[in-house]
């Protein structure tokens, strides 16, 4: 990998597994000092950090329950302390809002609690993460939000999740306009079907897998590293003229 992000700092929420981990690993491989957040699995986060260290990267983990937006300022206070110890400063160059929770709740089986939990993590938390990051973000910094193909092609079985991801798209546009004067770019990456824990049950159904692959121009499920490559581009100097965009990374699903 290149060292395109040497000297940069990054925070990836939900970075202990799946797409978030792949993004964290890619940013670390490109030279950034990477903080990841985890909710429940400290062991998983420690394993991810160890793997990045073994590969020559610099990473550390912070616990955060993003269901509680009120806890976000304290998360950034802890980030400040950790970055100061590791880098000698508190500046944050890259914020990746990736954390998520299961979103399979449709009209017939959804509850108010399910609505609140899905929207809190996928839409509310990124907004308040950016709010708390503002005083730390370097001019010319990067914000990358994780959206979904379901934001524009919603599924009835994931109605709340689809709506929350549509909100992220709109939020991305609004923040790009607000932060452009500081040279901060704000973009969203919208994965299609990607091999993660969230769709493990789907991938156990051979007929569904065959149908999804047939509807995908490149003929396969995405890998987390495919999404990480797009995020790495947006985080790098090569992405400096891209902002306010929702970039679908689906392999051409249902073109």
UniProtKB/TrEMBL annotation:
Task: Tell me which residues make up the Ketoreductase domain.
Answer: 8-196
Query: What is the phylogenetic placement of the source species in the record?
Result: Bacteria, Pseudomonadati, Pseudomonadota, Betaproteobacteria, Burkholderiales
Keyword Oxidoreductase belongs to the record: yes
Q: Which InterPro entries match?
A: KR_dom, NAD(P)-bd_dom_sf, Sc_DH/Rdtase_CS, SDR_fam
Please report which protein family the annotation says this sequence is part of: Belongs to the short-chain dehydrogenases/reductases (SDR) family.
What is the name of this protein? NAD(P)-dependent dehydrogenase, short-chain alcohol dehydrogenase family
Q: What terms describe the molecular function in GO for this protein?
A: oxidoreductase activity
Instruction: Give any Pfam family that matches.
Output: adh_short_C2
């Amino acid at each position: 990998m290149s060292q395109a992000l040497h000297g940069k700092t990054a925070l990836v929420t939900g970075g202990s597994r799946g797409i978030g981990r792949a993004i964290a690993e890619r940013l670390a491989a490109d030279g950034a000092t990477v903080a990841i957040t985890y909710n429940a699995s400290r062991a998983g986060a420690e394993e991810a950090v160890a793997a990045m260290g073994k590969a020559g990267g610099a990473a550390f983990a912070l616990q955060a329950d993003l269901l509680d937006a009120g806890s976000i300022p304290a998360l950034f206070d802890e980030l400040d302390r950790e970055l100061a110890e590791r880098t000698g400063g508190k500046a944050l160059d890259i914020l990746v809002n990736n954390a998520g929770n299961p979103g399979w709740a449709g009209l017939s089986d959804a509850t108010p609690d399910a609505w609140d939990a899905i929207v809190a993590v996928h839409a509310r938390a990124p907004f308040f993460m950016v709010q708390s990051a503002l005083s730390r973000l370097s001019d010319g910094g990067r914000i990358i939000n994780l959206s979904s193909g379901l934001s524009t092609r919603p599924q009835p079985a994931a109605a709340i999740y689809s709506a929350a991801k549509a909100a992220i798209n709109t939020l991305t546009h609004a923040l790009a306009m607000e932060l452009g004067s500081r040279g901060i770019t704000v973009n969203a990456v919208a994965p299609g079907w990607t091999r993660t824990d969230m769709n493990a049950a789907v991938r156990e159904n051979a007929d569904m897998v065959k149908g999804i692959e047939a509807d995908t121009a490149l003929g396969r499920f995405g890998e987390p590293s495919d999404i990480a490559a797009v995020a790495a581009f947006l985080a790098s100097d090569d992405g400096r003229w891209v902002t306010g965009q929702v970039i679908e990374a689906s392999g051409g699903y249902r073109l």
